[in-house]
Amino acid sequence: MSRRNFICAAACTVALFHCVPAIPAANKTAPMDAPDAFKVDDRQVLLLTHAVGAQIYECKTDISGGMNWVFREPIAALFGDGETVGRHYVGPAWELAEGDIVEGKQVAVAPGATSDDLALLKLDILKNSGNGILKNATLVLRLNTRGGVLKGVCQTAGEFRAEPYSADYVFLQ
Predict the structure, then answer these.
(1) Closest C-alpha to 6, from 61, 39, 49, 60
(2) What distance in Å separates the CA atoms of residue 7 and residue 96, rounded to the nearest whole number?
(3) Which of 55, 72, 60, 56 is nearest to 156 (CA)?
(4) How much is the CA Rg of the chain, to the nearest whole Å?
(5) For strand 101-110 and strand 12-15, is the pairing parallel, antiparallel, or unpaired?
(6) Alpha helices in the chain (DSSP H)
(7) Nearest Cα residue to 169 out of 146, 137, 143, 147
(8) 12-48, pLDDT tens digit by residue?
(9) Distance of alpha carbon 16 from alpha carbon 148, whole angstroms
(10) What stretches of the chain adopt beta strand conformation (E)?
């Protein structure tokens, strides 16, 4: 399947965090195997992407004078059907190669599978631009996280570290 076909026909049934492109998005609601707090069973899946990238952290001094790693921003490539279909960056924002851009705000959180894995997130989409598959998106979920949590002591204020991660991002209407 080409990148354009994946984006334009990105109908997915999400079960156990797997995507099966098969049913046109306009005809399918999303049975989600996501945390109960996310409550998305009645939502329609518009697009599912797999992200691979890094969480960027900065070493900062806290009010007691100690040094701590503080999350700064994500940077990741979004993949669909083995091809790059977009990118994820600070905002948080997701931008598709076809031109759609959405920005979100966290509304719910659940722990990742291990202490090394980023939290699972539910984000309301606050801003949409473009006329593609995400133009009617209202929600995005970050699921199936692996890595991304930076552990250890930082020594120098202003130092940056990139901690590798992967996740699935599900865009819903």
Answers:
(1) 49
(2) 9
(3) 60
(4) 17
(5) unpaired
(6) 3-8
(7) 143
(8) 323 323 333 322 344 344 435 678 888 888 899 999 9
(9) 21
(10) 12-15, 18-21, 45-61, 67-80, 83-89, 93-96, 101-110, 120-129, 139-147, 160-172
